[in-house]
Fold this protein.
Amino acid sequence: MGFTISKKTYIGTNQFLLMSKITFEKIINADAQKTFDILTNFENFENILPEFYSSITVKSTRDESSLVVEHLHLSGNEFVIMAKHFTEKPNQHQMRVIGGDIKGSYITESIIPLKDSDSLNTQTRLIINAEIKTSRGLRGTFKKLDYSSELEKLYQKFADVIGD
């Protein structure tokens, strides 16, 4: 399935925000197009990842962007967010949180095909760069701040689904 190559987590604070910057990679046992198609089919997230997405409502879709209301579960917390999804087929998907509990957060997924002489064993490198912002006022409300391991669990589930 997938595995972590590197991971960096930074926690910065200011008077109003807590911010976690997270970077890690996974190797997916599938081609880049299949990886991209599943990562950008957010309408299906509550079916394939119900422990992370309890509800998804697509508000609008255009050629390379969509506006989506999501109920995202990380570290035992439910975040109700309005997210703008941007795609650059088939190499990048970015989710920017424009409203809700973690407004200002983002996740960027870079999808890189790996060359292999054996076309039956196609793999893809998935690089995740994320920044999760929570306000200090919400900090006491949320149970844990270990978003790095939660995002890794989320993307391991993606890797498992994509690799099937």
Summary: The first helix runs from residue 32 to 39. The radius of gyration is 16 Å. The chain has four helices and eight strands.
